[in-house]
Design a protein that fits this description.
The chain has about 325 residues and is mainly β. It has a single domain, classed as 7 Propeller (Methylamine Dehydrogenase, Chain H). About 5% of the residues lie in helices and about 45% in strands. It contains 1 helix and 29 strands. The strands form 8 sheets. The protein has a 4-stranded antiparallel β-sheet with strand order 1-29-28-27, with no helix packed on it. It has a 4-stranded antiparallel β-sheet with strand order 2-3-4-5, with no helix packed on it. It starts with a helix and ends with a strand.
């Protein structure tokens, strides 16, 4: 009897503990941009011209409202260190701004006044080369490029813009519908009436929820050139688990659904390490430890974006009401 009680008391000590630690909340901004430079330097961006930076692993934050852009929704951010970052204002007009002094001053490096322009996400291969994608104009997805760390941007010829189907667009939900694919290419996912993966010179139909403006793929993450996870669903039905996640282990040639998928619509997914992935959405956060086959809901808190450090192991999340959090995964002993 005493041995049984002892074993019962020791059992919880070996159970993995997952936790979402809230670092900041209660501000008038919806955060969708997140860039985790390393385990100490984190930047976020959002509505009402808001940007914030932490240089101490999220313990303290410097909140900034970019002067002259107080009404701009900065839905993506790419940071290179504690001083240099680029932010993306979605549209009408669309803006890209750059700071080299930790956000004290911002330089307007790109402005697009084309009617209907709406930028969705940025991605950088390195400190110099980057890309920005926008919703279709005249049935072609907008593409912009930089080769000097975001100091200046140029558009590719319109005839080379990817062609969109009718009712097809991208979601500016988390800045992660476009990702680098190797050292010299990018891939992106779409939603709406059609949901597809654009991968180099291939366009791949996705077996994910689609058919109306609120459905489709929102985010893609890659472990390598073969292992991919795509999430989405229907943002108007946050609890729906219908075709909200698909996996590929052969570079997009074939797709399968998880045996136990994420527990609702998901706006972002990222690879953590080994076989571990994280995804988040309006009704919570899920973790997979087996390459995306099974997902466990570890929090019911709402987040828009979740990313691992580019150089490090830390994972941070951001969402509505200026909420910023850190994912903690440890063995309690």
């Amino acid at each position: 009897m005493r041995l049984g009680i002892l074993l019962f008391m020791l059992l919880p000590l070996a159970v993995p503990a997952q936790k979402i630690q809230i670092l900041q909340t209660g501000r008038m901004t919806s955060l969708r941009g997140l860039s985790v430079v390393n385990d100490r330097v984190i930047w976020v961006s959002g509505s009402n011209g808001t940007v914030a930076e932490s240089v101490d692993s999220g313990k303290t934050w410097n909140w900034i409202q970019v002067k002259g852009f107080e009404n701009t929704d900065f839905r993506d951010i790419e940071a290179f260190d504690d001083n240099i970052a680029v932010i993306m204002g979605v549209g009408d007009p669309a803006y890209l701004l750059r700071t080299i002094d930790g956000g004290q001053n911002w330089e307007l490096v790109y402005k697009n006044t084309t009617p209907g322009i709406f930028l969705d996400a940025m991605e950088f291969w390195n400190d110099e080369s980057g890309i920005v994608i926008g919703d279709p104009i005249k049935n072609r997805f907008f593409i912009g490029r930089t080769f000097n760390g975001g100091n200046s941007w140029q558009t590719i010829p319109e005839k080379n813009y990817p062609i969109a189907d009718s009712g097809e667009a991208c979601f500016a939900a988390s800045g992660t519908n476009i990702r680098k694919y190797g050292m010299d290419a990018a891939c992106f996912v779409t939603g709406g009436l059609h949901s597809r993966l654009f991968l180099k010179n291939k366009i791949i139909d996705l077996p994910i929820a689609q058919g109306n403006e609120s459905t489709g793929a929102n985010s893609i993450a890659l472990k390598d050139l073969k292992h991919m996870v795509i999430v989405g669903g229907n943002y108007l039905n946050p609890d729906s688990v219908f075709h909200n996640c698909v996996l590929s282990t052969d570079g997009g040639k074939t797709w399968k659904f998880p045996k136990e998928g994420p527990h609702g619509y998901r706006s972002c997914v990222d690879y953590i390490h080994k076989n571990e992935w994280i995804t988040c959405g309006l009704n919570g956060v899920d973790i997979s430890r087996d390459g995306g086959l099974h997902w466990e809901k570890v929090s019911g808190k709402s987040f828009n974006v979740c990313l691992r450090a580019k150089k490090g192991r830390s994972v941070f999340l951001a969402g509505n009401h200026g909420t910023i959090a850190r994912y903690i995964d440890r063995q309690t002993r």
